[in-house]
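Late entry, written up from scratch paper. The run itself happened at the end of the previous shift, but nothing got recorded in the book at the time, so transcribing now.
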Amino acid sequence: MTEQTPDILQRILAETRRTVARREAQLPLDEVRAHAVDTPERHDFRGALTAEGLSLIAEFKRASPSKGTIREGAEPAEIAQTYEVSGARSMSVLTDEPFFRGSCDDLRHVREAVDLPILRKDFIVSPWQIWEARLIGADAVLLIVAALNDDELRFLLDEAVTAGLAVLVETHTEREVSRALTVDAEIIGINNRDLNTFKTDLETTERLRATIPRGKIIVSESGIHTGEDVHRLRRADVDAVLVGESLMASDDISGQIAALLDT
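Output as recorded:
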């Protein structure tokens, strides 16, 4: 664990819980749910990941605790449209504000700009956030196993299904994979980044993929920068890769996607 990130995940979760409590006091869960159920039909996130060949989930990400600002003045609609025409099959939008400088408005702008399935990537700790995700146009949500106990994980997974959202259940260790399988997660993310140290290693995907039975949808996340990285992950038999920083930092996003996908 580095000095600059003393248990960064716990600090993020504590801030998230405070923020959600404050916002729920202003707009109760029942009201968010009532508004959300009237939103348009969902896009097929699962189908985007299971299409033939490796699928790219391209991420809109303004900043991170470890890197700071990644792309100054990034316009979500413009970047989303570039992702779509360049071959991304779905998108991820980071909506955490205190640590990643994202917002729900970023996701709304992406929803208006493209016809791709969208994953709301945030630190989900409450059903309120799940229904908010549907309300702002998301098709899927991220649940991080390391952030939740078993009861919370199962409850929030069920709540997302009730809301009509797909769920990417994120893991980083063998124990977390076991917990994801216990709740019968269909889409399992393997995060190559340690959320305590923010160090990345693609070997994490290679190691954990071998512990997951066939029939699950596997997404490798983080630390993916080159076509060689993607080839390595193809050999590990994943269905999709989630790429953010290397795209957001590129001066030629279309060219970077082509290099990743070898097109």
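Residues 1-6 have pLDDT under 50 and may be disordered.
(Scratch paper discarded after transcription.)
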